[in-house]
Write a structure and sequence with these properties.
Blueprint: H1 3-17, H2 33-46, H3 49-69, H4 72-86, H5 88-98
Helix pairs in contact: 3-4
Amino acid sequence: MSKDKVSIFFMVVMLVMTASAAFGFTEPTSGSFANEIKELTVDDIIKGAIGFAIVVAGVAFGGYNIMAKGQWLLGIGSMIGGAVIGLSPNIVTSMGILY
């Protein structure tokens, strides 16, 4: 390897390994309008019975498409979609850390 390639490699490694500030998603303060929306969508719908039914339906629809119809792409997509809906509160929280 030439000296220039090694220098560029180490610059890229240092750029990737440098620490950056992490900004996590914080919940809105209680009593605010955003908190009411968050409680309705996340706590009542996604974490509640409706969200559970959506996740079960997505996984069951995916299993049906794989087993009965042989449509692997649609089946796996439905299962992943159901899992993403079920884990969306955790995904939203962790995505805030990436930005």
